[in-house]
Structures are given as structure tokens and as C-alpha cells.
Specification:
Largest sheet: 5 strands, mixed
Strand order of the largest sheet: 3-2-1-4-5
Shape: globular
Structural class: alpha/beta
Distance between the termini: 19 Å
Number of strands: 5
Radius of gyration: 15 Å
Strand content: 15-25%
Helix content: 40-55%
Length: 165
């Protein structure tokens, strides 16, 4: 199963493509799509949409995994901006016929580290160790996207079914 994890952000959208099977999990590709704060919001969303669309068309993932939207009362604007990008990715999943799955941040952290409140550093180190990387993926959006994909591989194997959100 090919799984594409996406960490949506208006400045940096991280992605991580893995292949999960009976022999384990293999890293295929990971990176980011960037947009500039100097551009209008519609141009930024289009840039991210086109970047991820090209990746989806080229890599043909079976599942696209997004983090569920979460809003912290101190930073509501962050979740609103993330929501714009997340909406574009949801539309892309529908257009390409790719299954869409969503998990909360705590569910992903628990699947990766065993602790639902693991730090960003712990998550980066687990991803680094899992894929035998010399250093943690940088920027952290890459490790977040890979964590989403790996979490789905573990959760779907345990549950036996994918959770579509």
C-alpha cells in the first residue's frame, strides 16, 4: 500500500510517501511545497494544490493522510490558514479518487511513539530512527508528514480497516 502523508501549512506543506507491506515500511519520497507570504492567499493555495496534485498523479498513492484540524485558543489564525490548505487537499483527493483519511495529532503521536503527548523532537527522532536517516528530516513538516503516513500504516494494520474522514 502506498501512503502519502501531508502536513498542511500555508507557508510550508510537508509530504511523505511510504510503501507499507508485509516486509515493513519503506520511504519512497519526502519533501515540502513552499509558498511565499508575499503572494496573495489564492496564489499560495494554488501553488500548494498544484505541487501536491503533481505528486499524487506521479506517485499514485492508495491513501492520502491528513492531520485533523485542531484549533488552539491562543492561535486561531493558524488553524484557519491550515484549514484553507487542508480544504484544497481534500478537494484534490476527491478529484483524483484517492482515499482520504484523517487522524488527530494525539492519535498519530501514540501510534509512532506510544505516547499521545510526545514532543515534536521525540516524533522527529522516531521518524529518523525508523528510516535510518543520518539526521532528523528538516524542516520538521517533513517528519510530521511521514509520521502521518507511518501512523496510518500501523493503525490500518491494527484495525484492519481505514478510517475515512
Amino acid at each position: 500500500m502506498r501512503i502519502l502523508g501531508i502536513d498542511p501549512g500555508l507557508c510550508i506543506t510537508g509530504y511523505g510517501l511510504i510503501e507499507a507491506g508485509p516486509k515493513g515500511i519503506k520511504l519512497i519520497e519526502a519533501g515540502v511545497v513552499r509558498s511565499s507570504a508575499k503572494e496573495k492567499i489564492e496564489a499560495r493555495i494554488e501553488k500548494i494544490y498544484k505541487g501536491i496534485k503533481g505528486l499524487v498523479r506521479e506517485s499514485k498513492p492508495d491513501v492520502l493522510v491528513l492531520e485533523q484540524l485542531y484549533s488552539h485558543y491562543r492561535h486561531p489564525t493558524t488553524s484557519i490558514l491550515m484549514g484553507h490548505v487542508r480544504g484544497a487537499i481534500c478537494l484534490l483527493a476527491k478529484e483524483t479518487g484517492t482515499q482520504l483519511v484523517g487522524y488527530s495529532a494525539t492519535r498519530v503521536k501514540k501510534a509512532i511513539t506510544g505516547a499521545g503527548h510526545a514532543s515534536k523532537y521525540q516524533m522527529q527522532r522516531m521518524i529518523q530512527n525508523l528510516f535510518n536517516m543520518k539526521s532528523a528530516p528538516n524542516p520538521p513538516d517533513i517528519s510530521d508528514a511521514l509520521a502521518l503516513a507511518v501512523a496510518h500504516a500501523h493503525i490500518s494494520r491494527m484495525d484492519g480497516i481505514a478510517r475515512v474522514k
